[in-house]
Amino acid sequence: MSAPTAELPTAEPELSPGELIGEYQIDGKVGQGGFGIVYKAIHPLIGKQVAIKVLARRFSADPEMVSRFVAEARAVNQIRNRYIIDIFSFGQLDDGRHYYVMELIDGEALDAVIERSGHVELVDALPILRGIAKALDAAHAKGIAHRDLKPENVLLVRGEELGGREDVWPKLLDVGIA
After folding, report:
1. pLDDT (tens digit, 9 = 90+) per residue, 60-115?
2. pTM score
3. What would be the CATH architecture of the domain defined by 20-103?
4. CATH class of 107-177
5. Judging by beta carbons within 10 Å of its beta carbon (0-12, 13-18, 19+), is residue 65 exposed, middle or buried?
6. Residue 124 falls in the annotated catalytic set
7. CA-based, 20 to 30 A from 54: which of 31, 115, 153, 173?
8. Contact, 75 vs 87, CB < 8 A?
């Protein structure tokens, strides 16, 4: 009797630069996680840059996962808070994978900042924590709990200098675990 063979994971098909998804043209891959791939894209006519999250094929075939993916877009739009990533379009690729279009954030994940520097200065931590608290308060007011709050789901956005220091605020990601 032969030993059972392990099923090899199949590589997720990636979108190519120049490929059109809805109204947006893919620029390239931004990142990849357990649930899918995120791409940078641009609206070719008006130049708006966005991020597109494409749900992995195995999850796109699971009605419960698709429901959670849609729920993330709905939750974000119910909450409508400056500290939570904005999702503004949703669709399905020809191969059946689902995607949503969200704002493109020029920032760095909190876990990467902590890993690189070992800590976050108190003067920077306070506005980050204040923003996270405001986002969670707004979510809770709508009856939504994030349930996956961790440093890798907090993107730090840097803005204009205020009083000699650069302004830093958080954007919460992956509200779909709610």
Report:
1. 999 998 988 888 888 888 899 999 999 999 999 999 999 999 999 988 999 999 99
2. 0.83
3. 2-Layer Sandwich (3.30)
4. mainly alpha
5. middle
6. no
7. 115
8. no
